[in-house]
Design a protein that fits this description.
This protein has 204 residues and is an alpha+beta fold. It is built from four helices and twelve strands.
């Protein structure tokens, strides 16, 4: 068994027209035993930048705290928020410096650039970045997420359409993965607001 599947997770980020959405399931488990149904995997960096962390739950919390600390240092020094691409390289560098004893996490990053152009990427546990113009996925439900997103995604979606698409893709995918599920949470980020919605899913 891979340590990445120990707690189970499902993460997806998707691009729309001048907006992006990031969603995750809420199950925290120890293999097939469910421990909690409100585990947080998506974290706000600033108003237009979010990171989702799939993988080992203890490493998710540790890495999130270290990233929050590094971003606050950047804000104090530069007196501005970090651009999504800059933040992605920071995460990549932090993962790579621990490559001989890595964090068992696979991040998904979503953000809006200065001109409100959406940016999404994912990376492996040692920081190899993979950029995408449509969607990225991570976690134990990755295989079914790829299939659902491939069939449902279309370019230039507005925020409501994007929410509907990412929600249906997430719910359809976690039904096919016994290590993730128990509802979900979706963040749709536009230039002037963040829409947060909780999804009800199968509780079995």
């Amino acid at each position: 068994m891979s340590i990445f599947t120990y707690n189970g997770s499902a993460l997806v980020a998707m691009v729309g027209k001048e907006c992006f959405a990031i969603a995750s399931d809420r199950r925290l488990g120890v293999q097939f035993q469910t421990i909690a149904t409100d585990f947080q995997r998506i974290f706000k960096v600033h108003d237009k930048l979010y990171i989702g962390l799939s993988g080992l739950a203890s490493d998710v919390q540790t890495l999130q705290q270290r990233l929050q600390f590094r971003h606050k240092l950047y804000q104090l020094r530069e007196e501005r928020d970090m651009r999504p691409e800059t933040f992605a390289h920071l995460v990549s560098a932090m993962l790579y410096e621990k490559r001989f004893g890595p964090y068992f996490c696979q991040p998904v990053i979503g953000g809006l650039d200065r001109d409100d152009k959406p940016f999404i990427c994912t990376m492996d546990s040692i920081g190899a970045i993979e950029h995408s113009k449509d969607f990225v996925v991570s976690g134990t439900a990755s295989e079914s997420l790829y299939g659902a997103c491939e069939s449902m995604f279309k370019p230039e979606m507005d925020p409501e359409e994007l929410f509907e698409t990412i929600s249906q893709a997430l719910l359809a995918s976690v039904d096919r993965d016994c290590l993730s599920g128990w509802g979900g949470i979706v963040y749709v980020v536009t230039p002037d607001q963040v829409i947060t919605r909780t999804l009800k899913g199968r509780m079995d």
